[in-house]
Amino acid sequence: MATEETRVLLLIDDEPAQSRIVSTLAAREGWRSLTVESCEAALEALAGPEGHEIDAVLLDQRVAGDAACDFIRGIKAERAEIAVLMLTASTSPLLAVEAMRAGALDYLIKPVAPERLLSALRTASRVQTPRDELQPLAEKLPSVLEFDAMVGTDTHFRTALAKAATAARGHGHVLVEGESGTGKEMLLRAIQHASTRSKAPVQLVNCAGVAVQTLESLLFGHEKGAFAGAFNRQEGYFQQCDGGTILLDEIDQVDPVIQDRLADILETGIVRPTGAAHGFKIDIRVLAASDMPLANEVEEGRFSKALYEQISETRIILPPLRERAGDIPALTRYFLSKIGELEGFSHHSIADSGLSLLEAFDWPGNVRQLQTVLFRACVHEQREALTAHSFPHLSELLGDADRGESRARGLGVLLYQNDGNLRPLEEIEADIIRLAIGHYQGKMTEVARRLGIGRSTLYRKLSDLGIDNAA
Fold it and tell me: Whole-angstrom Cα distance, residue 226 to residue 276?
């Protein structure tokens, strides 16, 4: 295998323009690309003099056609250590499932965003480490737009949602801050969907990894001949979305030059395309998201104070998943229900051994990472219930640490045995009664009231189940 500094990517693609773009992006991450135009040529390259240096394969599914999964399976059979990525125009979850079961590490949908491709290549560069299971696969599930579908009972999370729901009914700009993967983009979409501008034009822009001139043209537009390569006039999103909303994700990554232009536009309500002699009056609402606390960035001189003051009329902070661990069971069951609705998937439940494992992890990638781990587990698990064995990479990361504390964090009653089958109802009922007695400190009248039964019925059950009421 090549060293980290000389990683080699075998690109199977017969579109020269796309090959050049992918090769250029891959070079940013230290990859050297070998490009072939057919699967046959790819097999020859793998068997050739440079074959042992190839670390990853990126296959355009169109080249292989219906045989793509068989081709992936063949590569993995010969070279299990090679990371295989598939690029496709299909949005079918069934194809994603088939590709991953065949051995693909990731599945990229065209047109793939530069940062999404780079993220997949970063995953491929460390495919032999256990974290390869924990990378983003967010596009496999549809985006949720309603506030009611955002799962969680954590106080700080519910406060953030309540603030967002209030902001949705207003007209001011909104800033959502939080770590990557906490659901900022989903919240922006929910705000827009519930706003008075929900039927007006909307555009999402991910500001990370986009060249300054490209982002300027996307947002503000340009006139023909405004700069080298400006062969035609381009209308920017601010004009296209007049009367509507622009969602600016990762606004903390915006170049200072564009920050200043944004601040001026939001102050004056006038956008002037690059190279234009005059501007256009517009009515735009900006919903922005940042991975970084922007107040700190302003203090350090890395973010425009004027722009921050404009977009932070309402400021919402989403807590990381590690600070709302009590929501993991509900989030897990929600994601499993959504995954089970996808074509090619069956519905899965989760055993307590699996849930305890999920609760023990600190989730640096937050809710998006949890979704990804569950998606991968559902792809590969043939049994109905996901157990600890369904998350081998997660188990390897956590080791043999005692995870009994999950009961104290709210799991409470175990529903499944380790083989994935439900425990007998009598055992579950006994655990619930023990839990209630402990929770209400042995106050049997309160225990009976909370369980919705009479005191005499409670004492009869204690006797039948062999429970000491001092338990």
Answer: 8
Placement of tokens 């062969």 in the chain: 231
| Residues carrying CATH 3.40.50.300, the chain | 155-317
- Which residue's structure tokens are 């309540």? 162
The shares of helix, strand and coil residues in the chain, as percent rounded to the nearest 5, are 50, 15, 35
Q: Does residue 372 sit in helix, strand or coil?
A: helix
Beta carbons of 176 and 188 less than 8 angstroms apart: yes
Where in the chain are all domains bearing CATH 1.10.10?
425-465
Those residues with Cβ within 8 angstroms of residue 235's Cβ, 6 or more apart along the chain or in another chain = 221, 273
Q: Name every residue whose Cβ is closer than 8 Å to that of residue 457 and which is 6 or more positions away in sequence.
A: 448
What's 387-430 look like in SS3?
A: CHHHCHHHHHHHCCCCCHHHHHHHHCCCCECCCCCECCHHHHHH
pLDDT digits (tens, 9 = 90+) for 287-298: 999 999 999 999
Out of 3.30.43.10, 3.90.79.10, 3.40.50.300, 3.40.50.2300, select the CATH number for domain 4-128: 3.40.50.2300
310-332 confidence digits (pLDDT tens) = 999 999 999 999 999 888 988 89
Say if residue 229 is exposed, middle or buried (CB neighbours under 10 Å; 0-12, 13-18, 19+): exposed
By the 8 A CB rule, do 274 and 226 touch?
Answer: yes
Tell me the pLDDT tens digit for each residue of 442-459.
788 888 998 999 988 988
Topology of 155-317 in CATH?
A: Rossmann fold (3.40.50)
| Structure tokens belonging to residue 4 | 């980290």
- The pTM of this model reads 0.66
Question: Which CATH fold would you assign to the domain 425-465?
Answer: Arc Repressor Mutant, subunit A (1.10.10)
Distances (CA, A) of 191 to 143, 168, 283, 343: 13, 5, 18, 29
State yes or no: cis peptide before 111, omega within 30 of 0: yes
Locate CATH 3.40.50.2300 in the chain.
4-128
Contact 208, 201 (CB under 8 A): no
User: 135 pLDDT band (50/70/90 cuts)?
Assistant: very low
